[in-house]
Amino acid sequence: MAVARVRLVGGDGALVSAKGLLKSFGEFQAVKGIDVEVQPGESFGFLGPNGAGKSSTMRMIACVSPRSGGELSVLGLDPNIDGPKIRARLGVVPQEDNLDVELTVRQNLQVYGRYFGLGRAHVKAKAAELLEFAQLTDRADAEVDSLSGGMKRRLTIARALVNDPELLLLDEPTTGLDPQARHLLWDRLFRLKQAGVTLIVTTHYMDEAEQLCDRLVVMDSGRIAALGSPAELIARYCTREVLELRFPPGEQAAAEPKVADLAERTEVLPDRLLLYAHDGEAALAAAHNRGVRPLSGLVRRSSLEDVFLRLTGRTLVD
Fold this sequence. Notes:
- The protein is α/β, with parallel strands linked by helices.
- It folds into two domains: about 15-230, Rossmann fold, CATH 3.40.50; about 240-300, Alpha-Beta Plaits (2-Layer Sandwich).
- About 35% of the residues lie in helices and about 25% in strands.
- It has eleven helices and 13 strands.
- The strands form three sheets. It has a six-stranded mixed β-sheet with strand order 5-6-7-3-8-9, sandwiched between helices. It has a four-stranded antiparallel β-sheet with strand order 11-12-10-13, covered by helices on one side.
- Helix 8 (about 230-235) crosses helix 11 (about 305-310).
- The longest helix is centred in the middle third of the chain and has 16 residues, at about 180-195.
- Belongs to the ABC transporter superfamily.
- Keywords: Antibiotic resistance, ATP-binding, Cell membrane, Membrane, Nucleotide-binding, Translocase, Transport.
- It is a peripheral membrane protein.
- It is found in: Cell membrane.
- InterPro entries: AAA+_ATPase, ABC_transporter-like_ATP-bd, ABC_transporter-like_CS, ABC_transporter_ATP-binding, P-loop_NTPase.
């Protein structure tokens, strides 16, 4: 399937602007000439499976990995020339927590703040503010190893905010967290966006992208496949509803020819058929009239997962 090359439209005030951005590791091209602009105050997402090029793009924006080609501007500066200046104005949340386990929760914030040359009094006050933001005040003097995974993640985000960054980069922020911890983290990030912090998020979770992102790109194999808000992408690439017909293993492929004309498009998955139709209930009734007897039939609204199936032919967790 041909993949569209997309230029994200934005004004001269874009915090991040890339044109033809490339990243290679030897003969392997991880990022294949993407064009990106991120505007102040928005929450922008890179959505895609593992290996799509999301993290490689983030590392170039974070000025920890040089670009192999193309143009890149971050906060109006060139990362190849002004890397230290840019990093001083960024907050970075890596995929893996890299907290100092020999320090307490509070000390992790205070010591990190000193790396930016902030005064002791300022760092002390900022640490107290961030502990409250991350809901960790009651654990301020606890050892990091005693924290849950969700608490460690909130502490990592709090630490990334110690220098009051203009741009916060979050690489797979909720991977490995349980649903309750994920929703609490989403709430903290939403509060940051309300406060005017610009967010760039990579994720392979569709629900996370829908919750957090004003706009996003779908990446696949180092290229941009689509751009827009979650609602725009769903409207552009999907029908209003999807009918899910679940079958015993191996029976879904045989049923597909019997119902294909009932939908604008069908997808055959290992345990089900997806029928993309504007009226899912009507499609379900018609399937039953034709003698199709699935284990279950579910009509739902289209989602970003459906967009990804349309663009790449596989699920995000492949």
